[in-house]
Amino acid sequence: MDDRLKRDDLTDDEWGRLAPLLPAHARRGNRWADHRTIIDGVFFRTRSGCPWRKLPEVYGNWKTVYNRHRRWSVDGTWETILGALRIGDGAGGDPVPGTASTAVTARPGDIRPGATFEVPGW
């Protein structure tokens, strides 16, 4: 894999926090492509702003990455992940580094940083 692409991929620690929040692999049909590779592809596309069809091949087939991203958008997987990371209890219940240990209650859909969590020194 090209090191320029690899430097922004998920670390093992980040993956360890994220993996338990993802849906299980499908029981029927072909085996799913690796979730970690798919998420790295989604993040690459988000960072770079490239079209889906121009996604580098190291992230797999662009159509697979697109379909998984769309499926998780519809079924609420992304919102589950963001909600768990916002309140700082990702996979193990440990606070997210750099955030306060107590979460602030916010209205659903309110994405203002000050309304969803407190960051010391802001």
What does the model show?
It is a single chain. The chain is mostly helical and 122 residues long. It is built from 6 helices and no strands. The longest helix has 14 residues, at 35-48. It is globular, with a radius of gyration of 16 Å. The model is unreliable at 90-106 and 113-119 (pLDDT under 50).
In short:
By secondary structure, the chain is mainly α.
Question: How are the SSEs placed, and which strands pair?
Answer:
Layout: H1 3-6, H2 12-18, H3 35-48, H4 62-75, H5 77-86, H6 113-116
Helix pairs in contact: 3-4
Tags for this model:
single chain, 122 residues, mainly alpha, 0% strand, globular
Using only C-alpha atoms, the radius of gyration works out to: 16 Å
Distance between the termini: 38 Å
Silhouette: globular
What is the overall pLDDT average? 74
Overall number of strands = 0
Question: Helicity, in percent?
Answer: 40-55%
Low-confidence stretches: 90-106, 113-119
